[in-house]
Design a protein that fits this description.
- The chain is an alpha+beta fold and 298 residues long.
- It has a single domain, classed as DD-peptidase/beta-lactamase superfamily (Beta-lactamase, 3-Layer(aba) Sandwich), CATH 3.40.710.10.
- Helix content is 40%, strand content 16%.
- It is built from ten helices and nine strands.
- Strands 2-1-9-8-7 form a five-stranded antiparallel beta sheet, sandwiched between helices. It has a two-stranded antiparallel sheet with strand order 3-6. A two-stranded antiparallel ribbon has the order 4-5.
- The longest helix is centred in the first third of the chain and has 16 residues.
């Protein structure tokens, strides 16, 4: 096991861009994330970035994972870009629902029907994928509607509708910096993410009081994801992406990693300079809601 941990730590260090400066605190964080991921069953992709400084850490940051319902952030951002350009409005209707109400249901409750209605208003998944390319994002792709994804044979290594953790950080940064959305649209989307009701045992699981979370979850049979922003009471803002497939207690690992990242970027990392292992016990959360074989549930 110690050999596996050392290999994981080496992989993290080799993944750093040439010439990148990583503080000792963040180096230790990467070692601890690598150790935790290696010592728990399953496969994990983790990435985090300080929105002010650009400092980042990752584990399997360039490996593709399913997005599941985290792709709904791209759908929302694509539609809001149309609103900002004056080509659409949040009051546009499909039946008795407005685009604004559909978007709120999609982000806060992960409503699959609302997602596909918004996709149809945009012109289909290809239009969202085109939006990603237009903003220079690679390593992330949207290929199918939710209905198409649910009807397909489940393959957690299918490159369709996937993202690397690093690419998801790119999407989050694009949303947060205002480079893609006007301030009103940015604020609207972040408010919806703040009110996300799904997956309370993931990023939100064991963060300390005062931490603000804006997130979007994703779930498939054998897969758990959660992405978004952590903001401290002092205003320090961290974008995070967590993808996990296989193994057990995926939410507990994500919750623990989120706490480690929050504390490390806040320069409050508990001392454990030798072992490189997590000082936080991984919580054994109750099992996630039963997952239908071909369903995104949140």
């Amino acid at each position: 096991m110690r050999f596996l941990v050392l290999l994981a730590s080496l992989a993290v260090s080799l993944a750093q861009p040439a010439g990148a400066e990583v503080s000792p605190t963040l180096q230790l964080l990467e070692q601890r994330l690598a150790a935790m991921a290696s010592e728990n069953p399953g496969e994990f992709g983790i990435a985090a970035m300080d929105m002010a400084t650009g400092s980042s850490v990752s584990f399997n940051g360039n490996q593709a994972f399913p997005m599941a319902s985290t792709m709904k952030l791209a759908v929302a951002a694509s539609y809001l870009t149309e609103v900002d350009a004056g080509r659409r409005s949040l009051g546009d209707r499909i039946g008795d629902a407005t685009a604004g109400s559909l978007m709120d249901a999609m982000i806060t409750r992960s409503d699959n029907r609302a997602t596909d209605l918004l996709l149809s208003m945009l012109g289909g998944p290809a239009m969202v994928d085109r939006w990603l390319r237009a903003h220079g994002l690679t390593g992330i792709r949207v290929d199918r509607s939710i209905a198409q994804l649910l009807s397909a044979r489940r393959d957690l290594r299918d490159v369709r509708d996937s993202s690397t953790p690093a690419a998801m950080l790119g999407l989050l940064r694009l949303i947060d910096t205002g480079k893609a959305l006007k301030p009103e649209s940015r604020s609207l989307l972040l408010d919806m993410m703040r009110r996300c009701r799904t997956g309370s045992n993931r990023i939100r699981g064991i963060l300390p009081p005062g931490a603000r979370v804006e997130n979007k979850t994703g779930t498939l049979a054998g897969y758990t994801g959660d992405v978004g922003f952590l903001t401290s009471p002092t205003g320090r803002r961290i974008a995070v992406a967590f993808f996990a497939r296989g193994g057990e207690n995926r939410p507990g690992v994500i919750a623990t990693a989120a706490r480690m990242i929050y504390e490390a970027f806040g320069a409050e990392l508990p001392a454990d300079p030798i072992s490189g292992t997590a000082t936080h016990a991984i919580p054994a959360f109750p099992a996630e809601a039963p997952e239908r074989a071909n369903a995104i549930i949140n």
